[in-house]
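Service request form, structural biology core

Requester: graduate student, group of Dr. S.
Request type: structure prediction, single chain
Budget code: on file
Notes: please return the result as structure tokens.

Sequence provided:
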Amino acid sequence: MYILGISCFYHDSSAALLKDGKIVAAAQEERFTRKKHDTSFPENAIKYCLESQKITIDEVDYIGFYEKPFLKFERFLYQHLQCFPKSYKIFLSSIPNWTNEKFRIIKIIKKKLKYKKDILFMQHHMAHAASFLISPFKEAVILTIDGVGEWTTTTYGFGKENDIKLLKEIKFPHSIGLLYSAITAYLGFSVNNSEYKVMGLSPYGDMNKKTNQYYEKLKKVIDIKDDGSYRLDMSYFIFHYANRMPSKKLCILLDGPVRQSESEVTQRHKDIAAALQLITEEAIIKILNYSYKLTNCKNLVISGGVGLNSVINGKILRNTSFKNIWIQPDPGDGGTSIGAAVFIYNTILGNKRIYELDNPYLGPEFSKEEIKKFLEENNIKYYEFKREKEIVRETAKLIYNNNVVGWFHGRMEWGPRALGARSILSNPCNPHMQEILNLKVKHREKFRPFAPVVCVDDASEYFDCDKPIPLPTDFMLMVYPIKKRYHKKIPAVTHVDGSGRLQTIRRGQNNIYYDLIKEFGKLSGIPILINTSFNIRGEPIVCTPYDAYKCMMGTGIDYLIMDKFLIKREDNPQDIWDSEESAKD
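Core staff response, request fulfilled:
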């Protein structure tokens, strides 16, 4: 049985394919179109999923869609009637999207895919909650929290075997996710794209509730009860009737106008980011403590876009009674295509759960022959390694000698994090490496940290982790303190507060990546690498050999490892890429 899950027409469009209860392929549309957070119908991602199994759309038994458009329109219509006439402009500008896309989901799917069988729709937060079905737990508390899906912004529920019950919900316009987005916009960053920048900025601010004046100021806009339920004071917000986030009243509360993009980030901005993080953590911890009290279940599954807040994730087991936590590699809207597929298979159809998502490598891969053909057709100079051990040994030497290496190997990762298939790797022991990567490669804000990757068996030596180490660290979804004695030894991955958003890797997940980290440890004495996403600012992570080579030639990446091939940037003239279309061919 094949089931195709689809998410699209809001942000982070994606597709996922389930075969007899197991996810066999999944990818975000942005990786193919090169449009970051692409919202369009995921034709390319669907094509990849089908081709990966050598099947046609006629062999797909069901298609699952990640939300209920008419229920969402009910909320959309209600909010604009409530806010009329203030909402008149946004209402008119939004109608074409509804008439051309959201109301026509069935027609679009049937027309674009020539699909003739059943299309099933589920509520947005159920598609999030369905991540439980691919977790390692037979039963768990489930928390879903994001901006908004149809009416709902936050739920907690309980999953047992194939059954999921969402017990409580908070409805729009009251939303922790939208509060986070509003402050993201106030701080001059883009909504639905840069909330993680605010998370990264927060440790530079005052993280003490008693001394951060903006914590008390932001507490005026949200009332959080002991059970974690909350309400926003909507007089501070305009997102429910306008195309922008911060209101004049919110700007007055926060002592200044919206920060202009690319302008200086002041201490005030840093303190506001810290206050927002503190309030978000407070609400989530209260919800979790209350849900544990009701269920007495020690397992927790988190989904929804706020599940990408790795700072909060790393604090949950220490501040609640939960003992185990699991988060899928893409807890945001992109991940709902997987949720839609598994919900149909396990819950609607009642099939036994047989699959646990413990490996994020679900995307496209390219054979040695395909990569070699690309290199030779474009006259790219390369060296071919003879054995895998040689790849590991020579790459470790390059990184130890402070080269920046693009690493392209195997199937592409699922989710927004680079996890060792499409990564940029470098030396964490070099105190200048963060600056080198930010200025020469990533072209991004100086305050943003870089992530360390470590083999799971070495993680507890360097990080103050929960024990046992939670599985979401495999997906770079947990921030933990780095032990003080290593702060100066790995300065390039030690954030200003002494923490690191680590990725752990286990043997069997990605063996060559695991061996590379160990080999670097033999040279440096520290078995840790910097792992950052293989892209430049504003672009999605690379997908194809063309994307990888183009990224290297447009940045300060020194070497590119693609499968068994080593490409040195200096050996290849950059003007070869003036004719990009011929290179793609």
